[in-house]
Amino acid sequence: MQEKIEQLKKKIAEAIKEVHSSDSLFQIKMKYLGKSGEVSELMKGMRDVPKDKRPEVGMIINALKVWAEDQFGKLDKNIKAKELKKQYAAEAIDVTLPGNTSKRGAYHPNTLVRRELISIFAGMGFTVFEGPEIENEYYNFTALNTPADHPARDMQDTFYITDDLLLRTQTSAGQIRVMETQKPPIKILSPGKVYRSDDDATHSPMFSQMEGLVVDRGITLCDLKGMLDEFARKIFGDGVKTRLRPSYFPFTEPSVEVDVSCFECGGKGCRLCKGTGWIEVLGAGMVNRHVLEGCGVDPEEYSGFAFGMGIERIAMLKYGVNNMKLLFEGDTRFLKQFKS
Amino acid sequence: MLLPLSWLKDYVDVDVTAEELQKKLFGCGFEVEELINIGKDIGGVVVGEVVECEPVEGTHLHVCKVDCGSHGVKQICCGADNVAKGIKAPVALVGATVYATGKDHVTVEGVMTIKKGKLRGIESEGMLCSGVEIGVNGDMFEGGDYCGLLLLPDGFENGADVKPLLGLDDYVFDIGVTANRPDCQSIVGMAREVAAVLGKPMREPDCSYTAKAKGEKVSVSVIAPDICPRYIAHYVKDVTPAPSPMWIRKRLALCGLRSINNLVDITNFVLLEMGQPMHAFDCAKLDGREIVVRRANAGEEIVTLDGKSFKLTPDNLVICDGNKPCALAGIMGGENSEITDATRELLFESAKFARDSVRKTSRALGQHSDSSAMFEKGISEYTTERAMARALHLIEELNCGTVTDVHVDIKTEYSHDGAKVMTVSLNKINKLLGIEVPHDEAIDILKRLNFGVEDGGDNLTLHVPPYREDIDGYADIAEELIREYGYDRVTGTFMPSALITNGGYSEAQKAENRLKDNLVSLGLYEISTYSFYSEKDLDMLHFPEDAPERSFIRIKNPIGEDLSVMRTTLAPSMVSTIVRNLRRGNAEGRLFEIAKTYIAKSLPLTELPEEKNVLCIGTFGGGDTFLDIKGVLENVADSLNIKLDYAVAQRPYLHPGICAEISCEGEVLGYAGRLDPLICEELTIEKKVFIAELSYDALMSHAKPFKYVPLSKFPEVQRDLALVADLNITCGQIESEIYSACKYVTGVKLFDIYIGKQLGDGKKSMAFTVNFTPKDEAFTPERIDGFVKKILGNLKHKLNIELR
């Protein structure tokens, strides 16, 4: 009997060497350890073993069984590891293949700038007001302290629809509509399209402006400067400074032109700033008291400031676009660059 | 305006460089748009005296020995016809830069550097120059126009740099003057500002004269005082038209004007110097020695100095004699009373005409002049008075006529002398500025700006200079102070006194942002196109003659016909953008635009029109089909929590078989479809183009916030139905029939469509998955069978559809 057991052990050890797959392992396992496998058959052979030897033989067979199970277990682990390795290799892909996404589009640069501006000023307490593009002379000029014979009407070439109706030349028209209906404190932004009969590389007959207006008690020119400093830093980057210089708009007094220090060269002078170190970005000023009075706001009690900038101008400066026409042509090679 | 530094120095001692002055002017509100250095291209040119001059045989050349003072005696070969021993002329030494001229010796073709060279084998160390070659013309220096050598006076020292001697070291400031400062559109006006900013005294121009003779009376009447508030006339006799002296001609030339003769030049000189347009009539040509300022009669005609003839209306102000118009007021004189060499007596006019009257006439007639430009900007009557005196002074100074005692000054009821007294509080000004301008400094600034100041502590009583019509209140004084005190002293503060306000977008603005976010994530590029286009753009898209879209709001003064009507539909702009892309070789794209259309309530427009927001989507190439553009719309609808309905429809520019009317809850929002292949052919578009155009406002008005519905406790049941229908039955019809047949249907989704022989002619098979959602109890299979039976019955009955 013992001899038989030894032979079987050798046989199993031999057989294991030939096993290279989960399938053949299973077969062998069944062959030796299955219900009617050879080890089980050995157990059946116990009847022929003398009774006193049975416990001893039983132990030996059991040991064989444990040994075989252990061997198969180890083998199983080995084979599975090998097979997994094969699977990994077989399933490996080129991860640099293009992804299965739908292509993303892009926002118009004006939308990007407009959103950025609004988020800057919204944080300072401004709400957004949008007025009509076809306006009365009153809102576009008269209420803005620009009566009919005023030379400032010639500063902008206006598109007229009738003698009284026109395409607004400035979003400032929105100021009046707000002041007529709201009481101070007022902090509004008025973005939108405006029209002037100009057409060349730096002018377009249609463009967009963003107007801002603050009216409250005790508003000063220093407040305007402080707010513009904040705006300039946020839109053009830390370290960008503003400079005020005298200018003229009928609806503000004093009026200023606002330059920012060149964010390209840091003020040393470059092509972008034409060597001056400064870039003109917007016009502003303290709201003219005639404008306040006309809207029923008492200039003795309240003061305010207003500022207006061209959205395209900011976009062109920010993104380095040198021809305004590109913004209105809808060329996909242009548009697709404005990722966000 | 042009401000020559040399002329400015007549009135102010400028002790800073041109560049420094430029900076100072910039700081106080006068941007120098260009600083022109008159002789910037010329260098190394000195006075030379020809001491020997021998002709070179067989040529037109002379070989000269030229004494260049400290630079030595140079041998120079010269081809000019006026070269001779003993003359003095400019010598460009070796290394000098001068202008290269063309064969005509007049046209400047660039700048050249003088080199040592040989002419016909003869060494030449430099060049004797003409006026043109060193940038000098006849108005800048006598003989400057001659194409031979520029002859210099004997008094010029040999070897001296010619630039200061010929005025080539001068600068001209091209200054941008803001519309509120018409008083600065003159040399004197700017001189006042320069004096103030430099803290120097101002020397006013000499306006003294003596009426040396009696003159024959001239009568003046102003019949249109509302547009001619002030009219001054003065009679000058025994005038002698002749060329002006050099100093007048030079100043005119620096400001870009050509000299005509002394009399005309005086009027132009005064215009530049004082900012007052003047006119001189040949008095002998004025019928009845009479001036009448009146509106033109309808149809009346005038021929102006430049020979142009105009038919006038009562909107035009004219200066007439006893019979006829002799000048277009403020714009240009008439040919009939022009100053000529034969003129022996003249009448000067210095007047104030209303700026909008001049502007309207000038625009209506298309006739512009330096004079009309000045009147449009506005002048003060102070200037009107002073300018007349200055012109008379110049008559005396130039000794070209006798000033008489015939002086007529009509101050109408519309006249005002500009004198203004106001009291301002410095405290109030400082409150507006946010910083404190020291009291004494404020007074000093105002005095420098010629304000009369009575110091009452905080309250200052100010006598405003009569030419400062722009000064209107304390805010204007605040501006005067801060622009002189310095804007760099304004320090940023952050509205410490203001109330807190809650900023941000409105709900509608947020919704627009979300919609754009959605479209961009679906692969669409946002475009922005002009709000105006041409009526022809609607022809391009085959809109019929009577289409409501042709009820345009028209621009009265468009840039051109192609930008002349406000758009009523965005589709033409989208198609034009697509065509542009295809022509540039961009093979595919998905575009969208949200913009306004302008819809008149009635035409002609009497009130503000409706501005309606429209969403337009366009796709081209890239294999996109109708279902792709519809997919975008369905995605948009899903994001707004609404359902869009599609029905077969027709639209002028869309394929008759691929066009859907889109509606929501019964309201038509717009259309989507394929651009008509016929239009594509006309526009040579080879790709398939799909367009959708929806009312943005209507679309958004249907948007609904999502509402949470508790999850059903009972399982949903799905059934697939394969149906056979006639080809003309639409998917939409079947879907809505299934929905209406059973209230438990919560979803109908097409998953297969098939057309084949075994179905028979004119038939198609469509397979749908139908979802049934229970409410109060689970569905038994029998119940579902009942629903299906009802659905099939309805489909059979209404649409002749069978189960496959």
Structural descriptors:
heterodimer; A: 340 residues; alpha+beta; 7-stranded mixed sheet; B: 804 residues; 6-stranded antiparallel sheet; 20 helices; 26% helix
What does this structure look like?
The complex is a heterodimer of chains A (340) and B (804). Chain A is α+β, with helices and mostly antiparallel strands. Chain A contains 12 helices and 9 strands. In chain A, strand 6 and strand 7 (252-261) form a beta hairpin. In chain A, helix 5 packs across helix 10. Chain A is rod-shaped. Chain A starts with a helix and ends in a 5-residue tail after the last helix. The model of chain B has no long low-confidence stretch (mean pLDDT 94). In chain B, the strands form 10 sheets. Chain B has a 7-stranded mixed sheet with strand order 26-30-31-35-34-33-32, with helices on both faces. In chain B, strands 3, 4, 5, 6, 7 and 10 form a 6-stranded antiparallel sheet that branches. Chain B is an alpha+beta fold. At the A-B interface, helix 5, strand 1, strand 2, strand 4 and strand 5 of A face helix 7, helix 10, helix 12, helix 13 and strand 26 of B.
What is the structure about, briefly put?
By secondary structure, chain A is of the alpha+beta class.
